[in-house]
Amino acid sequence: MMHTSDSYNQRKSLFNTMNRFIGAINNMDQTVMVPSLLRDVPLDDVADVKTVTTANGPAYFQQDTDMYSSYVLLKSIRNDMEWGVQQGDGRGKERGGGAERGGGAEDDDLEKQFHFHVNGLHAVLSKLTRKADTLTNRYKEEIGCGN
After folding, report:
1. Cα–Cα distance between 98 and 15 in angstroms, integer?
2. How many whole angstroms separate alpha carbon 8 and alpha carbon 68?
3. Is the CB of residue 63 less than 8 Å from the CB of residue 50?
4. pLDDT tens digits along 6-15
């Protein structure tokens, strides 16, 4: 019974979820040798319209207009996860801007939401790291180990 619970918890861990996402994007990146071939190729699969349960109930994300838009968006999010979200880095222009990208406001909104939450997660993890460091140093002082 414990093994099943551990396996379930591992699948739900943020770290494992992030690793699975990055692995999937790396695989996509290695597979797609000529990304420009994805332009104007519609996403016909019904699975591309996603339902995510949030605290406020289900949220529906509309389908991207083409596969290239999805490809660019997913790579951008992976880069943000690996290298950090850079404020004002001009990537909107690098990616061709909203209209040219084909995703429009839907992609921009999802990207803004993602950046907001990643920045929040980073801030919380940084505070927790400082708290752990303070606790460790305080403990060392208490037991006489010093720095």
Report:
1. 30
2. 33
3. no
4. 777 776 678 8
Higher pLDDT, residue 19 or 91 = 19
Sign of CA dihedral 70, 42, 108, 48: negative
Please check the confidence at residue 40 and state whether its pLDDT lies above 70: yes
Give residue-wise pLDDT tens across range 94-141: 444 443 445 566 777 898 998 899 888 888 888 888 878 888 887 888
Encoded tokens for 143: 């037991």
What residues form DSSP beta bridges with 132?
none
- Outline where the chain has alpha helix (H): 2-12, 14-31, 67-83, 91-94, 97-101, 104-143
Tokens 């801030």 belong to 123
What confidence score (pLDDT) does residue 68 get? Answer: 87
Classify residue 72 as exposed, middle or buried by CB count within 10 Å of its CB (0-12, 13-18, 19+): buried
* Nearest alpha-carbon partner for 102 in 50, 60, 47, 63: 63
Cα(117)–Cα(145) distance, integer angstroms: 39
Dist CA 58 CA 66 (whole Å):
24
